[in-house]
Amino acid sequence: MARVLTWPWHGRVTGGLLPIVFKGVRVQVGMTRDQAAATGPGDNHRIVVPGIEPISEEEQARAPEGGSYWAGRALISSGFLYNRGIGWIYQAADGSRWAVAFVERNVGANTSTVVLQFSRFGEVGRATERYQRTLTVAVGQLGQGDRARFFSDLGPVSNTTIRLHSVSDSGRTAILSWNVFNSGSDRSVDTRQRAYTFVKVTLRGAGLSLSAVHEVLYPFSAVFSETLAPGLQYVQVGGNTGNLVEKSRTALEQGGGDRVIYEYDSTVEFIESNGPGTFSLVSPVAFVQRQNWMVGVFFDGEDPVPGYIRITSTGGSYWSVELETVRPEILIQYYDGSTVIEQLGQSMYRGGGGFSGSCTIAWDGPGAPWSRSFNYATSSAIVGRNVTTDYTFNGQSASGSGAWPNVGEPIVPQFIGDRGGRLPCVEAGYGNFTLITYIVPYSNNLVGIAEQKNIEPGKFYGALTPAGYVATGGDLSLENYEHYGSYHPFTGEVVVGSSLPVNFI
Description:
Elements: E1 6-9, E2 17-22, E3 25-30, E4 44-48, H1 57-61, E5 68-70, E6 73-77, E7 80-81, E8 84-85, E9 88-91, E10 97-107, E11 112-121, E12 130-137, H2 144-149, E13 160-167, E14 173-180, E15 194-204, E16 211-218, H3 220-223, E17 224-227, E18 234-237, E19 244-251, E20 257-264, E21 270-273, E22 280-282, E23 285-300, E24 303-327, E25 329-334, E26 339-343, E27 346-364, E28 371-383, E29 386-393, E30 396-403, E31 415-418, E32 423-430, E33 433-441, E34 447-453, E35 458-465, E36 468-476, E37 484-487, E38 494-498
Antiparallel strand pairs: 1-5, 2-3, 4-6, 7-8, 9-10, 10-11, 11-12, 13-14, 14-15, 15-16, 17-23, 18-21, 18-22, 19-20, 20-25, 23-24, 24-27, 25-26, 27-28, 28-29, 29-30, 31-32, 32-33, 33-34, 34-35, 35-36, 37-38
């Protein structure tokens, strides 16, 4: 006897609408395009019921158009599906199943309140059972300064949400995220939500014995951490530079005085400066800078696994400058104390310097690895007040010239919010060359990775998922940040850069 199959997954949203085919009827379900749609209602989560035989090829062939049959596995939306709020499914140890939904989510200045409702389902003839559990969590709103670390400082501190971030396949462990986002209807502003705290919620028991215990798993200080390079210190030419040193002295043939030849002391004195200016340089420096951004928390069974994007930058600068005598200064010094200048002296600066370094951006999380590295170096020659520089950046070479003072300032790539629109990226460059790596958070804990070289258009080349790195392509608009992406938790399908909301349900 053939088993009864359900159809819990309908496929991928296309064109902003979801075609559902059931018993010959096609239904169009719209998806919103508001702020929350970027990384909110598009989320869904895996459900795996153990001990059920997988679908056979024969059974799969009977699936209707637009979807697939599944056995013991399903996707559930954590946002709104058919205008109903959906949370997740909790499979209790006694075999009962409970739909978990958010009744209340409030974020205060210092604490938050989360009310969860548990509804038993899936048992014919059983009376309805519903229970609520309240969590009071010691996580509050972020101040503006801390919001800026997540490129979400456009708008009030009340721009804060609590979301279901990820769930174990059994639903017994869930990760809630506290998020910040930017205000604005301008499409050149990135309004996607960024998590700043992750809280683990553990569910146990059933019925009256249901419990929900929470733990602040990763606070703000763990989600974003950094060890910054020392700030650049500038120096400028000091007052003792240019002293004359006597090189020879001969008596005048007629007597009454000496002919004295002076050259310039080659030592150039540098004193501290408040910043770049006339005859200034960056003090020689060697540095290591590290930044760590936890972009998601995933699951290995019931165990949470964090996923970081890490930036490591190393480098340093050097220079050496001397004062060279171009023409000595000659004085006639009479014994009566008077002096006549026979020849004025002339000097010039001569030396060189530069900087070099490297940067690696890498995924430190579950699944397939990913990293992006680039190197850079400059070599400058100083002659007088002119500087000629040969430089190499990301495999590209060129040269340039200019006036003192710029021998070279070390490149220190780090997370920034691009162009005031607050799209996260890592930017570096020198001369005519630039390289920008964009980090685009999407729904289902998908993070798109795009790149822009020099003045070329932005292009996606991959994405970070709960299963690690996946290669993918597409265009990245740098004028309109209203684009969408999603990840299928079972099949691994990835969509980035979609002009309309996208999801798998």
